[in-house]
Amino acid sequence: EKSDFLEVAYLLIYGELPSGEQYNNFTKQVAHHSLVNERLHYLFQTFCSSSHPMAIMLAAVGSLSAFYPDLLNFKEADYELTAIRMIAKIPTIAAMSYKYSIGQPFIYPDNSLDFTENFLHMMFATPCTKYTVNPIIKNALNKIFILHADHEQNASTSTVRIAGSSGANPFACISTGIASLWGPA
Q1: Which CATH number covers residue 124?
Q2: Can you give the three-state secondary structure of the chain, one letter per residue?
Q3: Half-sphere exposure in the Cβ direction for 32 (13 Å, CA)
Q4: Per-residue pLDDT for the chain (185 aa), expressed as one digit of tens each?
Q5: How many CB atoms lie within 10 A of CB 41?
Q6: Directed axis angle between helix 5-14 and helix 115-124, to 10°?
Q7: pLDDT of the residue at 74
Q8: Which SUPFAM superfamilies match (predicted)?
Q9: DSSP secondary structure letter of residue 127
Q10: What domain range includes position 52?
Q11: How many domains does the chain have?
Q12: Which letter does DSSP use for residue 70 in this model?
C-alpha cells in the first residue's frame, strides 16, 4: 500500500522488501540501465509511421537479445542484472515506441527522476517542452505498475514461461509475452 513499483520489483526479485540502503542502490542500478544502445534507434526507422506501438515494442524488446547474446548461456548469476536491465529498459522502449508512432523525437531517460516520473517524462516531454508530472497521474500509474508486476498466470505470463523453459534469451522470451499481451483476449 505504501510501496512504490521499484520496491515491489525488488520484493519479487529478492523475496523481501528492501532496506533504505538496498532501495537506494537498486534504484540507482535501474536508473543506470535505463538508457538503451544508440544503435537501437536505427531499428525504429525501419517501421512505417503507421505501425502500432505494440508491434514496434515487440521488435525492439526482442532485439535486445542481440545486444546481450551472452544470455543464451543464462546462469543464475545473470538473473539479477537481467531483471534490472528489463525493468530499466522496457519503459524506455515503450516510450520510444509511442513517440515513434506519433512522429515525435525520442526523449532520453532522466536519472534525476524516480521511475514513474521518468516514464511519464519520456512519454510526454518534447525537446522544446518540459513535462511537469501531475502527482495524481504519477500515483495512479505507480499503482498500475504495481498491479501489473505480479498478476498471476495470465496469457502473457504463460507465454513468457513457455518460451523461457526452452532456455531462450530472456529478452526474446519477454517479447513473446508482449505479443501475447497485444492480443484482444
Answers
A1: 1.10.580.10
A2: CCCCHHHHHHHHHHCCCCCHHHHHHHHHHHHHCCCCCCCHHHHHCCCCCCCCHHHHHHHHHHHHHHHCHHHHHCCCCHHHHHHHHHHHHHHHHHHHHHHHHCCCCCCCCCCCCCHHHHHHHHHHCECCECCCCCHHHHHHHHHHHHHHHCCCCCHHHHHHHHHHCCCCCHHHHHHHHHHHHHCCC
A3: 8
A4: 689 999 999 999 999 999 999 999 999 999 999 999 999 999 999 999 889 889 999 999 999 999 987 776 766 657 889 999 999 999 999 999 999 999 999 999 999 999 999 999 999 999 999 999 999 999 999 999 999 887 767 888 899 999 988 888 889 999 999 999 887 75
A5: 13
A6: 120
A7: 64
A8: Citrate synthase
A9: T
A10: 5-182
A11: 1
A12: G
DSSP class of residue 126 equals B
CB atoms within 10 A of CB 171: 22
What would the grid cell of residue 104 be? 515525435
Which residue shows C-alpha cell 543464462? 74
